[in-house]
Specification:
Layout (H helix, E strand, L loop, with lengths): L1 H17 L6 H9 L13 H6 L14 E9 L3 E9 L4 E11 L2 E8 L7 H9 L3 H10 L5 H11 L3 H10 L1 H14 L11 H10 L1 H9 L4 E3 L9 E8 L2 E7 L14 E8 L2 E6 L1
Antiparallel strand pairs: 1-2, 2-3, 3-4, 5-6, 6-7, 7-9, 8-9
Helix pairs in contact: 4-6, 8-10
């Protein structure tokens, strides 16, 4: 028995020495996206990321010239989300690291970004290269979404988070006008779920004042569906399939939907109840 206790005492310091140190999500994110390697990487991964990151960190797969900035968006006792911005002289893009906490500490479980954005620049290049006569013809054929609106909307859809936030702050007065018109019109007065929701949504988007402001702000539509928040007004910029981006209004923070890898992948506060959101 004494020999067993002695062996245990000798082994405990060795076990403590090899056990990974507890790191918070932001530090894990910064090490995972750094250009240098990270020998202890696998100790801080779980779920789908553990099977994806075999030998290299994400940072080792990113061009060295790109600057990386990590920002903690949300953290509670069980989950956390860190936004990562990649930037160089020519481009700026964002993705989101989703963490979960288990008995051994924080683990990176999923990486998400807005899908299909590579389709935007070629479409913008095509549209902006049209001669004036073809632009006029485009406007005649698309009276509900002019050439200028389509180009602006595509650019906003594929913009970095910082640029979308800047667009919101530049035009905040018009966003507030749009919100007031929707509130005064009581288009969404009936709580969800409601069988009349499609008709209410159609009426809201067809309202002349609402439509004018949506087009001025390069927004596709307003809805209460698609973000798992029936009490939120969602102003959709655009997206493909189930991956969308837009602005969300909910003045009560306690009523906001939770972020998750398979739902709202990021929810950035912009002030006064407004948020930038993306879904996956």
């Amino acid at each position: 028995m004494k020999h067993l206790l002695l062996l245990l005492c000798l082994c405990l310091p060795m076990l403590a020495a090899v056990a990974p140190s507890a790191l918070p999500p932001l530090q894990i994110a910064e090490r995972f996206v750094a250009s240098a390697g990270w020998a202890e990487m696998k100790d801080y991964l779980c779920c789908e990321v553990a099977s994806q990151a075999k030998k290299q960190t994400l940072g080792q797969q990113i061009p060295v010239r790109q600057r990386r900035r990590c920002e903690l968006i949300q953290q509670d006792s069980a989950t956390a989300v860190v936004a990562v911005e990649l930037r160089d002289s020519a481009s700026r893009r964002d993705f989101y690291l989703h963490f979960r906490h288990d008995s051994t500490g924080w683990k990176l479980g999923a990486i998400r970004s807005l899908a299909m954005t590579h389709l935007g620049p070629p479409m913008v290049a095509l549209l902006t290269g049209l001669p004036r006569a073809e632009v006029a013809d485009y406007d005649r054929k698309h009276p509900d979404a002019s050439h200028a609106f389509t180009v602006g909307n595509l650019r906003l859809w594929t913009s970095a988070d910082a640029d979308i936030a800047a667009h919101f702050h530049r035009h905040q007065a018009d966003f507030q006008k749009l919100l007031r018109r929707l509130q005064v019109g009581k288009f969404f007065a009936t709580p969800l779920p409601s069988p009349n929701e499609p008709a209410a949504e159609q009426a809201a988007n067809a309202d002349p004042a609402v439509h004018t402001l949506l087009r001025r702000l390069f927004l596709g539509r307003v809805t209460r569906r698609g973000t798992e928040c029936g009490s939120c007004l969602t102003f959709v910029i655009g997206g493909k399939t189930n991956s969308s981006v837009g602005l969300l209004y909910q003045p009560e923070a306690s009523s906001l939907p939770a972020m998750s890898p398979n739902g709202i992948i990021v929810l950035r506060p912009l002030g006064e109840g407004w948020y930038l959101y993306k879904t996956s």
